[in-house]
Amino acid sequence: xxxxxxxxxxxxxxxxxxxxxxxxxxxxxxxxxxxxxxxxxxxxxxxxxxxxxxxxxxxxxxxxxxxxxxxxxxxxxxxxxxxxxxxxxxxxxxxxxxxxxxxxxxxxxxxxxxxxxxxxxxxxxxxxxxxxxxxxxxxxxxxxxxxxxxxxxxxxxxxxxxxxxxxxxxxxxxxxxxxxxxxxxxxxxxxxxxxxxxxxxxxxxxxxxxxxxxxxxxxxxxxxxxxxxxxxxxxxxxxxxxxxxxxxxxxxxxxxxxxxxxxxxxxxxxxxxxxxxxxxxxxxxxxxxxxxxxxxxxxxxxxxxxxxxxxxxxxxxxxxxxxxxxxxxxxxxxxxxxxxxxxxxxxxxxxxxxxxxxxxxxxxxxxxxxxxxxxxxxxxxxxxxxxxxxxxxxxxxxxxxxxxxxxxxxxxxxxxxxxxxxxxxxxxxxxxxxxxxxxxxxxxxxxxxxxxxxxxxxxxxxxxxxxxxxxxxxx
Length: 475
Prior knowledge:
Number of domains: 3
Helix content: 40-55%
Radius of gyration: 29 Å
CATH architecture of the largest domain: 3-Layer(aba) Sandwich
Distance between the termini: 15 Å
Structural class: alpha/beta
Low-confidence stretches: 249-259
Strand order of the largest sheet: 3-4-5-6-2-1-7
CATH superfamily of the largest domain: P-loop containing nucleotide triphosphate hydrolases
CATH class of the largest domain: Alpha Beta
Strand content: 15-25%
Number of helices: 16
Shape: flat
Largest sheet: 7 strands, mixed
Number of strands: 13
């Protein structure tokens, strides 16, 4: 993305026609004088007004007719969101009014902002670092209280502060190590090796904890992944539709209807869940269905929660086979399993008991009986769906906690942390093997580089372009 910082830019910061008012942002060196060309204030001019004030004015079209009465919030550099001279025009939320004002701003010498350009200018002008800038988009996109809490905390700089602390300590040590190289002939040792070893262990542990937090952080941000698995025609798609309250997945008596995964999110008691309807498990020679089943196994391995569907109307042997297959695919150390005994409205009571006894027996053999919930449902008529919702919400209740622990939610951050840890592990191994100081120092510099790339102390135009291109217009 090519940013012309000398330009004054404009964009709507709200969606026209969705409320009582719309807000239009203008930012850049000429923001105040351009606003004066478009807005006639009752007293004085915008260019002469102090920052943090609001003025009332009218906007006229080229024929002199009033387009709207507006309020103008005035900000002066560097005390604005972007760090530049800025105004925010509050007008009525008519698409016509907003469009007319934007045309007038363009005619007065401003240009339309690119996606994320306001936030990018805030970053380039030192109002926030790159991790904080990315958090702005996450705050806007947050769909639940937990996701908002994490994004807002990152936007205020808590994550950046942790990274800068680690980076600062490493910089101090690498500086001392490089100083040793300047006095290598005198064999002077400036860097305390015991302190270096201790610091390395602390930072490696810290980085590892941040890396490990991504699974939880990603679940909060994008939804706890819940895979719905089972044999064909056990009611998986019907269950998804029942949970969502709409016909999202195709339901048919034909086996193998679902060939690929279908994903939808749902907020249950303040927690976002991402439900994944998967292809039914069965023996088949159909190539496309085989691919779908392979994806089912992949989604099961990636899920935090697995809903194993059992159809009570099927023969007992095939039911047992499904139960075994699902249980064998679950990693009980990191995943939760909920077995749903479906179609209780049309099945034999004795068969219900026999099936549930078999399920309990299989769970006993695995030693995981206490970790698994068994719920009787009828996906078709909604029986037991409320109980399932309650179990899902209770299983993830800790996501709503107010812990101050930093959670990583960004894939770019995860990769940089992983690269940093790799470099630090090389330092630890090298020092233990008597690696020369200059080589150890190089690995520490690499770790510093990767940590710095998260907050933008080291960045490239390509990285910046990719990040801010995903922002909405006006942010």
